[in-house]
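Field log, afternoon session.

UNIT: design team B
ACTIVITY: writing a sequence onto a fixed backbone
BACKBONE:
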């Protein structure tokens, strides 16, 4: 029963919150669709945390997404032991990179008083959820080997069953608790997403593509020499 609630019902609740609250927030308070950057308060640690985090997490998410969309092609890619081994090592390396980068971002907000002041409760909740997600992902990659293969036979069919509105929770029922926590926490992050500054991820400034260019004219007289 608990598996059905956590992996059969909660994912739909999370997606419903993601869409409905996201649309509502965009219509009512569009200005809040921003990362609300604190770079002007502190930039050095932010750079070493933010840059590795964004690059590594995007690659990790892309790998998860491609394995979900094209399970057959992903299986062919992993058909050779050397490719499987390289992918596993690369994934573990990227996971450790995201973990270190996220730890830097958290310590930055804890140790820097000016940044801590502008950090909200939702920010701390998001950081905690992201830290849990990355930490469990690294633990799974390190202790439960060849996850890129068994992902195709567990998480992928479970996710497709959710898309088809026919949740098949048995794919996750027999998996270790840490994998279940990783899967549940992923949808928890989606549920928190529209309430946080993470919404800037989907705020793409497409209007800049068609906006007329600006001409800057220098009116101040230049001194000779």
């Amino acid at each position: 029963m608990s598996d059905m609630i956590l992996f059969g019902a909660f994912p739909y609740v999370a997606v419903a919150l993601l869409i409905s609250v996201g649309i509502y927030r965009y219509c009512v308070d569009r200005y809040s669709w921003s990362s609300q950057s604190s770079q002007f308060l502190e930039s050095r640690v932010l750079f070493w945390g933010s840059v590795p985090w964004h690059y590594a997490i995007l690659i990790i998410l892309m790998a998860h997404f491609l394995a979900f969309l094209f399970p057959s092609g992903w299986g062919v890619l992993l058909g050779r032991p050397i490719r499987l081994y390289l992918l596993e090592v690369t994934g573990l390396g990227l996971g450790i990179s995201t973990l270190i980068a996220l730890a830097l971002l958290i310590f930055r907000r804890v140790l820097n008083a000016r940044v801590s002041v502008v950090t909200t409760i939702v920010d701390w909740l998001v950081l905690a959820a992201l830290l849990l997600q990355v930490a469990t992902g690294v633990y799974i990659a390190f202790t439960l080997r060849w996850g890129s293969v068994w992902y195709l036979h567990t998480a992928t069919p479970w996710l497709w069953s959710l898309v088809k509105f026919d949740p098949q929770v048995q794919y996750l029922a027999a998996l270790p608790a840490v994998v279940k926590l990783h899967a549940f926490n992923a949808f928890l992050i989606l549920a928190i997403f529209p309430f946080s500054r993470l919404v800037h991820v989907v705020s793409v400034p497409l209007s800049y593509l068609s906006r007329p260019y600006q001409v800057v004219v220098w009116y101040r007289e230049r001194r000779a020499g």
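LOG NOTE: The mean pLDDT is 86.
NEXT ACTIVITY: expression trials, pending approval
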